[in-house]
Amino acid sequence: MKSIVFTFSFVVLFTQLAMAQQSNEEQNLIKLSLDKWQWMADKDVEKLSQLFDEKSKFVHMSGTWKKGEELDIIKTGRIWYKKVTVKDTAVELFGNTAIVWNRITLDAVVREQVAVNEFTVTEVYQKNGQDWKLLALTFSSVRDTHQIKH
């Protein structure tokens, strides 16, 4: 009986430890994603430039472009990501690749017009050494009742 209790306790402890490590990496990605939204709102292209991979792509309602154009759009304010309200987040890890889904309300200024939209944003990251690099960011227009399945 003692060996069963010991074995069960060991399995529970090991499982919790494994989940805590995974959760830690997931939490790091969630924080990085939230930081990214703040950097976009602040037009901090220096930090964004370090985060965005050289080959990164960005899909918006009005087009698809690469890193340089996205940074220019942010810097010049052609799109000002004024405020992002994150309603839900999900993370999936695949080795050194991660996908982060954010369910957001975006308050933006686009070509001098205020725009408030509901999106699910898909962010693809790849770990490069100790750092995560953003490879792709895609805005999908959704209804405000849309939910991310965890």
TrEMBL record:
<feature type="domain" description="DUF4440">
    <location>
        <begin position="35"/>
        <end position="134"/>
    </location>
</feature>
<protein>
    <submittedName>
        <fullName>Nuclear transport factor 2 family protein</fullName>
    </submittedName>
</protein>
<dbReference type="InterPro" id="IPR032710">
    <property type="entry name" value="NTF2-like_dom_sf"/>
</dbReference>
<dbReference type="InterPro" id="IPR027843">
    <property type="entry name" value="DUF4440"/>
</dbReference>
<feature type="signal peptide">
    <location>
        <begin position="1"/>
        <end position="20"/>
    </location>
</feature>
<dbReference type="Pfam" id="PF14534">
    <property type="entry name" value="DUF4440"/>
</dbReference>
<keyword id="KW-0732">Signal</keyword>
